[in-house]
Amino acid sequence: MADARRLIELGMVPELAAELVSQINAAVAGVTVPATAVTVAAVDEANFEFAGGNLQEFADAIGAAIPAA
Predict the structure, then answer these.
(1) Domain count, the chain
(2) CB within 8 Å of 18: residues ≥ 6 apart
(3) Phi, psi of 32 (to 5 degrees)
(4) What pLDDT sits at residue 1?
(5) pLDDT of 35
(6) CA contacts within 13 A on the Cβ side of 15
(7) Can you say whether residue 13 is alpha, beta or left, with left for phi > 0 and alpha for psi between -120 and 50 degrees?
(8) Handedness of CA 47, 64, 22, 11 (dihedral sign)
């Protein structure tokens, strides 16, 4: 499972990394996370900063960090 330290290494701010880890853990536990429970600001190409590259490279890195079912 991806953890906050790895997400921070990938360039995510700690708050966003912690929120993402929380939602991934909930999803793994079978909990549905409603859109209203998402507390981070919307991310798009214009406001996204990732130390490892662009938004697609970030999505690829997150996908690689989550184990296959």
Answers:
(1) 1
(2) 4
(3) -90, 130
(4) 43
(5) 65
(6) 4
(7) beta
(8) negative
| Mean pLDDT taken over the chain | 70
CA dist 7 and 29 (Å) reads 20
Q: What angle do CA 16, 49, 6 make, to 5 degrees?
A: 50
Report the amino acid identity of residue 23.
Answer: Q
Q: The domain containing residue 36 runs over which residues? A: 4-65
Long-range CB contact pairs, 10-15, < 8 A, 24+:
10/50, 10/51, 10/52, 10/58, 10/61, 11/49, 11/50, 11/51, 11/52, 11/58, 12/50, 15/40
Indicate yes or no: pTM above 0.85: no
